[in-house]
Amino acid sequence: QKPGITYDGNGSVSVLGKQYDVMSGDEYRALINERFASDPKFTEIVGSLGTANTNWQNQIYQNAYSQDHNISVTGGYKNIPYRISGGYTNQNGILKTSNFQRFTGSLNISPSFLDDHLKVNVNAKGMYVTNQYADQGAIGSAVAFDPTQPVYVNAEPYMSSYGGFYQTPTTPDNTFFGKLIFP
């Protein structure tokens, strides 16, 4: 039997429906100025604020592109029917770094013997899967993190210790500098 080839593929896009409504950097600075204007530590409190307007949710979510491809070859060789197939799936999640990949393969041979009185089916299947789970805690952190701070800071200690990404600096005893304590 002459070989026949079949291909099936599809792609999809996943989009975040809605983000949590949070304050912008400007709104947060205005709230701090209003709430702490009479506080003796006003200068220190306002000094811990940045000048950015960062929506941290934009930093953790993405439009997720996914694809699925399958190909199979069917035919026969000297009265031995066969089917060979392979597949690839790549699904990205809307939370950055989440990803699922799957590679599949299968082989089916169905020979018959003794004038078709004895039929044998041989099947072999294999699959290799990788799954990278995104940290779900990033969602709560993005909603609660200070919107006045930038994503990247081109200064020390951020460049050498954090790859240029903003982090709340800590002292050697792990207390935060400039942490706002609301009474």
Give the % helix: 10-25%
What is the overall shape? rod-shaped
How can the largest sheet be summarized?
5 strands, antiparallel
Supply the number of helical segments: 5
Structural class: alpha+beta
User: How large is the radius of gyration?
Assistant: 29 Å
Low-confidence stretches: 174-183
Mean pLDDT: 87
Q: Which H/E pattern describes the elements?
A: EHHHEEEEEEHH
Molecular structure report:
With 183 residues, the protein is an alpha+beta fold. It is built from 5 helices and 7 strands, in the order βαααββββββαα. It has helices at residues 25-36, 42-47, 56-60, 137-144, 158-162, and strands at 4-14, 64-76, 81-92, 99-109, 112-113, 118-119, 122-132. The strands form 2 sheets. The chain has a 5-stranded antiparallel sheet with strand order 1-2-3-4-7, with no helix packed on it. Strands 5-6 form a two-stranded antiparallel sheet. A hairpin with a 4-residue loop joins strand 5 (112-113) and strand 6 (118-119). The model is unreliable at 174-183 (pLDDT under 50).
Which key terms come to mind for this protein?
183 residues, alpha+beta, five-stranded antiparallel sheet, two-stranded antiparallel ribbon, 5 helices, rod-shaped, disordered C terminus
Concise summary:
The protein has about 180 residues and is α+β, with helices and mostly antiparallel strands.
List the helices and strands and how they pair.
Blueprint: E1 4-14, H1 25-36, H2 42-47, H3 56-60, E2 64-76, E3 81-92, E4 99-109, E5 112-113, E6 118-119, E7 122-132, H4 137-144, H5 158-162
